[in-house]
UniProtKB/TrEMBL annotation:
The gene is gucD. GO terms for molecular function: 2,5-dioxovalerate dehydrogenase (NADP+) activity. InterPro entries: Ald_DH/histidinol_DH (IPR016161), Ald_DH_C (IPR016163), Ald_DH_CS_CYS (IPR016160), Ald_DH_CS_GLU (IPR029510), Ald_DH_N (IPR016162), Aldehyde_DH_dom (IPR015590), AlphKGSA_gudD (IPR054869). CDD domains: ALDH_KGSADH-YcbD (cd07097). Belongs to the aldehyde dehydrogenase family. Keywords: Oxidoreductase. The active site is at E250. This is Alpha-ketoglutaric semialdehyde dehydrogenase GucD. It comes from Psychrobacillus mangrovi. Coiled coil: none annotated.
């Protein structure tokens, strides 16, 4: 029988109060159960929130430096368990092992980045208009932060939320996506083994509609950070606004890549292949609309198809696999539905489009990398987030039309331009409506020390990662002192 993972509440590994369990399966082989998790109740969440409240004073008083030192210990613990964590990630979520190793290494680097935040300033001195006064700001934690994460980056996203929350002095109630909760449990084990004090990090698994819903409707938490779908994000925003809880949302993307006629075609093709199909297209930063100037269209399309033909789809744990399965059956069905919708809308399917069911793939959630052309910007496949390896080619006459099409989206997370013309690059940087702006670089890929987030419906305007995280996880006290 597969291993059973428990909740971590007030420093103790505990079963759900109703004794209900849920399985997490391998998307490369639905017969393989990766682990069994607690299907927790609202009461379990309340207990976790109370334990975070009880722990927050002492954790705050430990000081930023000492909290940072603790994160170094966690980083070392994750490093010791890197192989096991990465293999679990691949088996539970489907991305290839090299990608999973890369993500786990990124998690370690994020932990070390925020560990070193412990040694950086937590305020500024500001000259007062009163010459006898000392005025300064001091950052203070929010208190208890609820963290709800998706399944597509089960190591990096939880860590890039938990690490800054903790170093800036908050305590945490963490609910991972059910589809990748075993990987999340292994990360939480590293915090516990590193000696995180009881109640500082609580971990509760279970249904979004129960565990997630209880967190977002709690009046006892002080902040909530969420990455996932727009539909759930809206629920978070509504509940948090009603309760006066600070919130931060990171949701979808429909990321454009513009290829101009002076682009280096090889570099553009490599960028689109990697940006669109790595992680089976399941990144909020994945490339999905490829907008190409007409004079280079045929050359680019032929080169793109030639490279796509080389993609080997198989179990992510197998050494030479380039693209693994979709993360779940429902994700596979969403992708297949959109492929059908694209055809019904009149777009032309020029590559892929089918589920792969042959031989060893029969029990997994595999789909071919898929390319559509003759796509109009208003079509659903050009407007809605598919979250799979499906791209839409859109032909345009010049850069103005390209930018108009790129901006014709409710989303604004990441956008790329391929060109060798500096003037075109400057126009793009100025006119594109996107939080991440990339020139001659793929749309996916995030630097852990730089601000990350989108415009329009992609996020709530705040930024994660790097120094930007401080803005969400802290409040500012402005202090003025006079000697008498
Ligand atoms: N921006 C991004 O990075 C991501 C975007 N998505 C988009 O969302 C689509 C659907 O994916 P899905 O996993 O269903 O996304 P969800 O938004 O449903 O899941 C994200 C997280 O929210 C939790 N959750 C679900 N329902 C609630 C609720 N009512 N209250 C509070 N928390 C809740 C989930 O828990 P549980 O897992 O238990 O349901 C999970 O932890 C994808 O196809 C993709 O388009 C998905 C993942 C990441
Ligand atoms: O591109 C990346 O590395 C991160 C993307 C991301 O945050 C997401 O897909 O949720």
């Amino acid at each position: 029988m597969a291993e059973v993972f428990k909740n971590l509440i007030n420093g103790k590994w505990k079963e759900s109060s109703n004794g209900e369990l849920m399985e997490s399966i391998n998307p490369a082989n639905r017969q393989e159960v990766i682990g069994i998790l607690q299907s927790s109740t609202a009461g379990d969440v309340e207990e976790a929130i109370q334990s975070s409240i009880d722990a927050k004073r002492e954790w705050r008083k430990l000081g930023q430096f000492n909290r940072g030192q603790m994160l170094y210990q966690v980083a070392n613990e994750v490093e010791r368990n890197l192989t096991e964590i990465a293999e679990t990630l691949t088996k539970e979520m489907g991305k290839t092992l090299p990608e999973a190793i890369g993500e786990t290494q990124r998690g370690i680097a994020i932990l070390r980045y925020y560990a070193s935040e412990g040694m950086r300033k937590d305020g500024d001195v500001i000259p007062s208009s009163d010459k006898d006064a000392l005025m300064f700001t001091k950052r203070t934690p929010l208190g208890v932060v609820g963290i709800i994460t998706p399944w597509n980056f089960p190591v990096a996203i939880p860590i890039w939320k938990i690490a800054p929350a903790l170093v800036y002095g908050n305590t945490v109630v963490f609910k991972p996506a059910s589809e990748s909760a075993v990987t999340a449990a292994k990360i939480v084990q590293c915090f516990e083994k590193a000696g995180i004090p009881k109640g500082v990090l609580n971990f509760v698994t279970g249904k979004g509609s129960v565990v997630g819903n209880t967190i977002i409707n709690s009046k006892k938490i002080n902040g909530i950070t969420f990455t996932g779908s727009e539909a759930t994000g809206k629920l978070v925003a509504k509940a948090a606004s009603e309760n006066g809880v600070k919130f931060q949302l990171e949701m979808g993307g429909k990321n454009p890549v513009i290829v101009l006629n002076d682009a280096d075609v090889k570099s553009a093709v490599d960028g689109v292949i990697s940006g669109a199909f790595k992680s089976t297209g399941q990144k909020c930063t994945a490339s999905s609309r490829i907008i190409i100037e007409e004079s280079i269209y045929d050359e680019f399309k032929q080169a793109l198809i030639k490279e796509t033909e080389k993609i080997k789809v198989d179990n992510g744990i197998t050494e030479d696999t380039w693209m693994g399965p979709c993360a779940s059956e429902s994700q596979l069905n969403t992708v297949l539905d959109y492929i059908k919708i694209g055809q019904e809308e009149g777009a032309q399917l020029i590559y892929g489009g089918k589920q792969l069911k042959n031989a060893n793939l029969a029990d997994g959630f595999y789909v071919e990398p898929t390319i559509f052309e003759n796509v109009a910007s208003h079509m659903r496949i050009a407007q809605e987030e598919i979250f799979g390896p499906v791209i839409a080619l859109i032909k345009v006459k010049d850069i103005e039309e390209a930018i108009d099409v790129a901006n014709d989206s409710e989303y604004g997370l990441s956008a790329s331009l391929y060109t060798t013309n500096i003037g075109a690059a400057l126009t793009f940087i100025e006119d594109i409506e996107s939080g991440l702006v990339r020139v001659n670089a793929e749309s996916a890929g995030v630097e852990l020390h730089a601000p990350f987030g989108g415009m329009k419906s992609s996020s709530t305007g705040s930024r994660e990662q790097g120094e930007a995280a401080k803005e969400f996880y802290t409040a500012i006290k402005t202090v003025l002192i006079k000697s008498k």
